[in-house]
Amino acid sequence: MSQKIIAPSILSADFARLGEDVDAVLSAGADWVHFDVMDNHFVPNLTIGPMVCAALRDYGITVPIDVHLMVSPVDGLIADFASAGASYITFHPEASQHVDRTLQLIREAGCKCGLVLNPATPLSTIELVLDQLDMVLLMSVNPGFGGQSYIPYVTEKVRALRSMIDQSGKDIRLEVDGGIKVENIGEIAAAGADTFVSGSAIFDENDYADVIKKMRAEMS
C-alpha cells in the first residue's frame, strides 16, 4: 500500500494567520494541505476559493495541495484551481453532469483527479471510471461543516473500496475525510485507507506535532 499521508484541513486553521498556521502544521509532520471548497449551494457553507490556494503557494507552501470541490457546477473552477497551484482536484459525481468530461478537464489542467463519495453514495458510482482516478475520497461525515463525528458504517465502505482498488491493480489513493482523530485513525487505516484528512482534531490542539505523532503511531 502507498505511504500513509496526513492532510490537515485548513478549514479548521487560523485564517487570520493562515500561512503561518499551515507552515506550523507542516513543520509538525503533516504531509499535504487539504482544501475544503464549499459554495453554499451544493453544501450548506461558504468557504474559500482559488485566491487562497494561490496565496499559500506565494507564501512558500510547496507540499501537495489537495482540493476538494464541494461546488455545483464544478467544471468552471477546475482551471482556476489548477492555475492557483492545486495538486489534486476531487469532486462529487452528483455535482457534475458529465463525470468523464470533468475528470478529463482536471487531467488536461495538469492535476491529479479523484472522485468524492458522500457517506450514502454507493461505490458502484465509480466503477466505470475507476481506472481514470488517482484518488477516491470517502466522506465519513455529510459535507458542509467541520467538527462532525465519524459515521461508523464508512469503515466497512473503506474495506470494500480497498478491495476494489487492489483488484484494479491501479495506484489509487484511498482518502477518508470527516471526524478523523487519534482514537479512530488506526481502525480506518487497518480497513485500508492510506490518506487521512483531519481538521479540528489537529488544529484545535496546542501541540500539532504531538497529535500528528500519535496519529502515526496508531496507523503503524
Q: End-to-end span in angstroms?
A: 12 Å
Mean pLDDT: 97
- Given as residue ranges, the uncertain stretches (5+ residues, pLDDT < 50) are none
Major sheet size, sense and barrel closure: 8 strands, parallel
Major sheet: arrangement of strands? 1-8-7-6-5-4-3-2
What share of the residues does DSSP label as strand, in percent?
15-25%
Q: How helical, in percent, are the residues?
A: 25-40%
What is the oligomer described by this structure?
single chain
Structural class call reads alpha/beta
Outline the structure in words.
With 220 residues, the protein is of the alpha/beta class. 37% of the residues lie in helices and 18% in strands. Strands 1-8-7-6-5-4-3-2 form an eight-stranded parallel beta sheet. Helix 2 (50-59) links the parallel strand 2 (33-38) and strand 3 (65-70). Helix 2 runs parallel beside helix 3 and helix 6 runs parallel beside helix 8 (208-219). The longest helix is centred in the C-terminal third of the chain and has 15 residues, at 154-168. It starts with a strand and ends with a helix. 43% of the residues are buried.
